[in-house]
Amino acid sequence: MKKITLSVVLSFIVFGFSSAQQRGFHIGGIGGYNAIGILNRLLPEQAYHITCSPQYGFASGYNFNHYLGLQVELVNSHQGQKAENSSNQIVEEVNLHYLQLPILFQFADGDEFSQFYLTFGPQFGFLKDAQITTPAAGMIQAKDRFEKHETGILLELGTYSGLSHDYAESRSHHLLCWSVGLRFYYGLTDINTPQYRIPIPGKNYQKATNVAAGINIGIHWIIR
After folding, report:
1. Which candidate among 21, 107, 130, 187 keeps its CA 20 to 30 Å from the CA of 53?
2. pTM value?
3. 24, 60 in Cβ contact below 8 A?
C-alpha cells in the first residue's frame, strides 16, 4: 500500500514538474484569409457572391501548462459581402473594416513533433469604417448605418509545430513555433443600427450578423 501511495505521489510530482516546465508567455503575429458574409441581408432576388478578405494582427497569451492556455489578439479585419442578381452582376458590395479583440481559451495536446489545438471564446469588434457600393450610387460612406460594436463567437482548430528540431522544448523555452488553423466566426449581435433594421416586405425583420471562415497562420515566440 505504501509503495502504491508513493508511486501515486511521485506521479503527481512528475506531472506537476512537467506542466510547470511548459508554463510561459508567448507573443507573435497572425494572418489569415477568410470567406466572409452577412446573414439576413440579401433581398429575395439577390444571391451571395463569394467574397474573401485578408486579416492580420498580433497575438499574446499565457500557457498555464502543456494543455491549457489563454490567448488575446488584436486583429485588423474586413467583413461584408457582395450580392449579385440573376444575371450574375454585382448589385451591392458592403465593406466593413473592424478592429477585433478575440479573448480565447486554448486546449492543446500532442507529442514532441507537433500539437493539435482548439481555441474558442468571445470576439469583440470595433467598427472603423464602412462603405456600400452600388451601380447606381457608386461608393458611399455608410458608417452611420452600422453599429459601432459587435460581439460574436470565435472557434479555431489547428496544429502547432516547432521551427527548430526540438519541438518538445519549444513551448517551455525561448523558441519559435508556428501555427496553422481553420478559423470560424459567428456574430451574435445585429450590425444594423435601429433606423436601418428594415424588414423584407412580407417578412419579419431578422438581425444581420457577420460570419467568416478561413485559414489562420501564426508565428509565436515562447517566453518561459
Report:
1. 107
2. 0.83
3. no
